[in-house]
Design a protein that fits this description.
The structure is a homodimer.
Chain A: H1 6-19, E1 22-23, E2 26-27, H2 32-39, E3 45-48, E4 54-55, H3 57-64, E5 74-80, H4 84-91, E6 95-102, H5 107-115, E7 120-124, H6 127-134, E8 142-150, E9 156-157, H7 165-173, E10 178-186, E11 202-205, E12 211-212, H8 225-242, E13 246-249, H9 253-268, E14 278-280, H10 288-292, E15 298-300, H11 309-314, H12 331-340, E16 344-347, E17 351-352, E18 358-359, H13 372-375, H14 387-396, E19 410-414, H15 431-439, E20 455-458, E21 461-464, H16 471-479, H17 486-489, H18 493-501, E22 505-506, H19 528-534
Parallel strand pairs in A: 2-11, 3-5, 3-8, 5-6, 6-7, 8-10, 10-11, 13-14, 13-16, 14-15, 16-19, 19-20
Antiparallel strand pairs in A: 1-2, 4-12, 8-9, 17-18, 20-21, 21-22
Helix pairs in contact in A: 1-2, 2-3, 3-4, 8-9
EC number (chains A, B): 2.3.1.187
Keywords (chains A, B): Acyltransferase, Transferase
GO molecular function (chains A, B): acyltransferase activity
Chain lengths: ~550, ~550
Amino acid sequence: MTAWNSARRAKEERITAGARYAQGKEVAADDATALLEAVIRPGDRVCLEGDNQKQADLLAVALAAANNQILYDLHMVQSGVVLPEHLDVFESGIAKRLDFAYSGPQSQRIAQLLFGGKIALGAVHTYLELFARYFVDLTPQVALIAAVSADRDGNLYTGPNTEDTPTVVEATAFKDGIVIAQVNQIVDKVPRVDIPGDRVHFVVQANKPFYVEPLFTRDPAAITETQILTAMLALKGIYAPYGVQRLNHGIGFNTAAIELLLPTYGERLGLRGKVATQWALNPHPTLIPAIESGWVQNIHCFGSEVGMDEYIRARSDIYFTGPDGSLRSNRAFCQTAGLYACDMFIGSTLQIDLQGHSSTVTAGRIAGFGGAPNMGSDARGRRHSSAPWLIAGEQADPATPAALRRGRKLVVQIGETFGDKNAPLFVDRLDALTLAERLQLDLAPIMVYGDDVTHIVTEEGIANLLLCRNADEREHAIRGVAGYTPVGRQRNKKLVEQLRERKIIQRPEDLGIDPLDADRSLLAARSVKDLVRWSGGLYSPPAQFRNW
Amino acid sequence: MTAWNSARRAKEERITAGARYAQGKEVAADDATALLEAVIRPGDRVCLEGDNQKQADLLAVALAAANNQILYDLHMVQSGVVLPEHLDVFESGIAKRLDFAYSGPQSQRIAQLLFGGKIALGAVHTYLELFARYFVDLTPQVALIAAVSADRDGNLYTGPNTEDTPTVVEATAFKDGIVIAQVNQIVDKVPRVDIPGDRVHFVVQANKPFYVEPLFTRDPAAITETQILTAMLALKGIYAPYGVQRLNHGIGFNTAAIELLLPTYGERLGLRGKVATQWALNPHPTLIPAIESGWVQNIHCFGSEVGMDEYIRARSDIYFTGPDGSLRSNRAFCQTAGLYACDMFIGSTLQIDLQGHSSTVTAGRIAGFGGAPNMGSDARGRRHSSAPWLIAGEQADPATPAALRRGRKLVVQIGETFGDKNAPLFVDRLDALTLAERLQLDLAPIMVYGDDVTHIVTEEGIANLLLCRNADEREHAIRGVAGYTPVGRQRNKKLVEQLRERKIIQRPEDLGIDPLDADRSLLAARSVKDLVRWSGGLYSPPAQFRNW
């Protein structure tokens, strides 16, 4: 006789085992480790909520403190590997296998643990891909999540950092898994219900608010004139001719410069209302001047950003907010928006090779992908048209009859030819390939593949890869904007000039841009304090960004 | 002074206007039209929940009955155009513009209204693409949705047909829109909370349960021996060599035949546990024998299927279910699973051209796309490997070094060379092109583009397009399985034989399959009654499928 409800019975047993530490659904913080030891089973798939920003830090500490004779060989399936405890569990043997998407601050240690064989790597995913697998072959048996508050029935309020929580909970709770939430406080009534209580089995009140990293704050004071030049090139050479209205900006100073140039340089180009109106984007503080100047119609957010709460509340026409007035973010839907409803993704990377493949992996650092592979890929399932998408499609494939020609998403890599510590952005061979060999990975960790990249912008100009007709043209389009890097110096000058005549390469002067005009006076805000002023005092930057 | 909270104020005004007809959140069915006239504004974007299966039919009737002097020029943004009322609103001028994804039963009338200029068409989308736009440029101001029950706070229980509801509500409610739900009953406590009440503004109790179409029920009695042959070819020629475990089946008798062959022919091939273990799929009754025979590990569902409720409840290890025991479906997540976590999509179509483009549009019928463009496209953001994906990638591109080579999703079109009413499956020119000309569309409504299709299966054999090295080979691979259709008869026989030697074309005999073995005795169930028997009486087919 086959058992057809074994997971349901196991769930009941787990709840019974955990209930010893609970009053109703509430568990004291001191009992968190005992709760996890009672509820989790060796070999379980566990999602320890590590989002791009929000961290279930109390539960991370509690899991890391578990007895590795009781809990071992866990398979961690979570977006972010961000806190030290996320890796401590691998050191101690509590966890063995890892599927993840992003590992910013732990990129060096995760590499060491992989090299040392302490982590069996499933794959490095893009967020939406990992979410997809939650419903097919990586469904968590236990989810350890974070929220702002809970009521006694377990209804959760996530506040502005909803992020991955609804997705993780849906996959876990509806497949007979156990959901344990840490909350900052337990209240009589939550300000809004982000997660219904019948999906939540235990609630642990934390002794301090969960950790959130201000990941998307860029201090305008640190933006260089070279970055301003690349921003001018992007605005005049890409945003304007394609008329890009629906878009996503990656993290970084180059895109922050674009945001701060909209109300100044963009205004001068007459682009207000014509470009950058609808966004899939975290609440970047550097977008405040453009919002205040009437550039932006609406923004849907993956997560939130520290200090932006009051500003968002006062600008509900722009953001998605709940009945309580605070932001409702949702990474799954925002990634879907980035994939299917945006006409452009523009972001930075650490290395680009001669095929246009890019990677943020360098020797000894595995940073993960985050959302870039998803947003930086052409959505082949897309069936609605828009002007920028049609123009890009025609540039890529002028021969196909219009009705049978697909458009193309604009995928733009922007950066300086030499980046941090003077490391060249352009390389003959990606470090990602060396890593793949060393770890015997099926695939090198490529963030955006060359065949999805449409433009590369550096201070030397714009390379439009859509217009290249073969691999050789493509290689020289890349060399032609690679400046004085070794890759750039190995260019065939004549071929590069031919590409320039065909506008495959456009120099600043070809676009009527004088590099000497790339001045910090063009920035709508030149400091964090300026951003606060633009916001009418509503933006409240975190302490590390205040120097006044 | 810019108004930054105008949508919030408008929401309050709308709620106040609607509250005249409400006690708490409850509105009598007789007042539904008055409620809509009070709450909706001319020109609004409105989602009138029309899912693939579940229909907010009371609200559809109520909207169609509105005064077109009060409500006009609405922009309807909804997945399904299924009920007559969905189009009546365009006849009367209440609605003007339409963005949608699927229009099965209304495909003829929607074409007439488009030709007649009564509908201004935005675009025909795939579901996930339309959902994406809900968060960027097609956010509804008002959502009219359907649920099984509500409590007095507006908490909703959707039952097994959750489908699109969470997505529609999230986009609407968190952008200061109004959510109106019709429910079958109002109760003290809902069995589970599918939609939290603070996202729901008005609840209308319907006088009868909302309409659900049994869209995924295929009577095994109607499966032909030709369909059985194509199923054998698919199993032995594709499922087995690629080892496809994670997959989606489209609607149709060809894929139903595959499902019914798993416990018989599939078992004989030794494939149990090796293929078809994890699914993104509606609860197809024809999968019951495979489930009962231990083939299936888990299934995540877009929606549900009439009559499958008790079976699903008793098989919770297989399906995603709630604490109440009934199915939790979710189209957005299941489509995401189909895009990023499945290695194969296999489905049928009405026309395939010589480039491999396929379409379900025929002269005078616009059926829409549903999920096929999304699931039938290669996910270029995917970064995890699997055996089938790597094999397909290598077949398509043997030259690229493995670490830099992307895999490929298997996208299979399966059908008979002559379909319904003897219409040829293969055509020189798609009717979709004629339609695009007539309606001056930017894009012909292609369901799956040829460059995403990897295999075509007919009773004449399998064409593996991955192995084709140029357009000519591709064209002849298609002609080579097109049988006695005009396209098939125009083949160059010598070229086709060369393709067969290279295994680009595989005939039944090349796979060791004797077409005479394609017998109905191979079907694990030969009738709906057989399916009921397999289910131990748990499957309760709708009346139109009962003939005993």
